[in-house]
Specification:
456 residues; alpha+beta; four-stranded parallel β-sheet; four-stranded antiparallel β-sheet; 13 helices; 23 strands; binds zinc ion
């Protein structure tokens, strides 16, 4: 059977079985020669593409889904947006291999069946990601905390958060290799305040006050009525009466007659001169030599004056040496910052023993949304009593499947469970804790750390 193969330049090629067999063998040999000894195991995004699968399934192992090496980007729609690609492919510390040839810097490497150089680049990319991933602290590798994941992704992909302009999004920018700007920027800004990232200025954009869009049209406007319909005209300066008006006001047929003193202007340089240009508003007829600057939102048509429009500075972000040190420390400092001492001790012991092979542990953090309101209305002792009851309910419900560590501002659970079950159990967990309490504590659980892949 012939195989249709689509090249990275959009061309299509037809491979005979013998040809494709030959390419597969050569590619695997090249991979071995640069140190990639086994077929890389991959996940497909958005899904495995059938026309390619015959060749690609001989190169990439799709069966082993537990510990993949890469995500293969097989988006076939030419119009699919790329700026939010990483909103859909989680920051899983894996490289994105583009086989369609259109993802450019949104992918980490491009693989082209017909281009041997791309085979080598792909193998190197997989190996480099793997090496840096293994350099991460196990706590960082397993952390589900969005800030930690952003740092870890930047480290593993060896990429800075470098913005590019992007008209497809109302924010006007995106960060290739990372989630869309509205997710990435608040995390990066917070990481800057914690000295884990440093930022450098990229550009100043302007923002619509009504809808927040930065897709604005900039224009010169009449100072009086804000119309953009301005036209250029030369000015005439009549020496005798010192009037200075647009030429059109002097023009009567072939003659120039002063509109103020009605004298005919005859000699350029002697009677009058032309000192420059002015702008005339077609709406209100006023003239101005310095028009105003105004903005109109392309998304909601709201108008803003140049001097009051909201400015939005855009930055690039890079990891600091402090972040790299924290990311690669055997037991990382910020994943456990603020955890109760008893929990930290147990975690260290678990890590040292590596005794949890095959089991799944997760650290969950519980915070109480109603803490402030209950403390204010009924006093702190009442809140603390409710909190103690809540934790007691949880302990009864968990019955040996987890340990509770009361903390200062939050409480922590070390859960012995599979990742999936913890996820679906959380609502039940909270409901059980809340059971028969006289007031709603509005508890929120955040899965701080999962050890699913951290402890070998
Ligand atoms: Zn708007
Ligand atoms: Zn006007
Ligand atoms: Zn005059």
């Amino acid at each position: 059977m012939l195989e249709v193969y689509s090249g990275s330049d959009g061309s299509a090629a037809i491979l005979e079985p013998a040809q494709s067999e030959n390419i597969v063998e050569r590619c695997l040999a090249v991979w071995r020669s640069v140190g990639l000894s086994e077929k890389p195991s991959v996940e497909w995004f958005p899904r495995k593409v059938v026309p390619f699968s015959a060749v690609y399934s001989k190169l990439f192992d799709t069966a082993v889904a537990s510990d993949p090496d890469a995500v293969v980007l097989a988006e076939q729609r030419r119009s699919a947006p790329l700026h939010n690609l990483r909103d859909h492919i989680p920051l899983s510390l894996l490289p994105v291999i583009d086989i369609g040839g259109r993802a450019k810097h949104f992918a980490d490497v491009h693989f082209d069946l017909m281009d041997q150089a791309s085979w080598i680049e792909t193998a190197r990319c997989i190996l480099e990601f793997r090496g840096r991933r293994e350099g991460l602290s196990p706590f960082v590798r397993a952390s589900l905390d969005p800030q930690t994941r952003l740092l870890a992704q930047a480290f593993v992909s060896a990429r800075q958060l470098t913005p590019i302009r992007c008209a497809e999004t109302t924010g006007g920018i995106c960060y290739p290799g990372f989630p869309s700007a509205e997710h990435t920027v608040p995390l990066a800004e917070s990481l800057c305040r914690q000295h884990y990232m440093k930022r450098t200025f990229f550009d100043r954009l302007h923002e619509c006050a009504r809808c927040g869009s930065r897709r604005l049209s900039v224009r010169e406007e009449c100072n009086a009525c804000r119309s953009p319909e301005l036209r250029q005209a030369s000015l005439i300066h009549h020496y005798r009466c010192a009037t200075l008006r647009p030429e059109a006001e002097f023009r009567q047929g072939n003659l120039l007659i002063c509109p103020k003193c009605s004298v005919q202007l005859r000699n350029y340089g002697k009677d009058y001169d032309k000192p420059g240009q002015t702008q005339i508003c077609s709406d209100c007829n006023r003239t101005t030599s310095e028009p105003a600057v105004g903005f109109v939102c392309l998304d909601c048509s709201t108008h803003a004056d140049g001097d009051t429009v909201k400015r939005a500075d855009v930055h690039a972000y890079a990891l600091t040496a402090e972040a790299v040190a924290a990311l690669t420390k055997p037991v990382d400092s910020f994943a456990i910052k603020g955890l109760p001492q008893a929990l930290v001790a147990d975690l260290r012991q678990l890590q040292a023993m590596q005794a949890t092979a095959g089991s799944n542990l997760a650290v969950a953090e519980v915070r109480y949304g109603a803490r402030q309101s209950i403390t204010q209305a009924r006093g702190e002792p009442v809140f603390e009593r409710l909190r103690a009851l809540f934790l007691e309910n949880l302990a009864n419900f968990l019955a040996g499947r987890g340990t509770i560590y009361p903390g200062e501002t939050a409480d922590y659970l070390l859960l012995d469970d599979t990742g999936e079950r913890v996820g679906t159990d959380i609502d039940r967990l909270l409901a059980q804790g809340q059971n028969s309490l006289s007031e709603d504590l509005s508890p929120r659980i955040r899965l701080a750390t999962s050890f699913k892949r951290a402890l070998p």
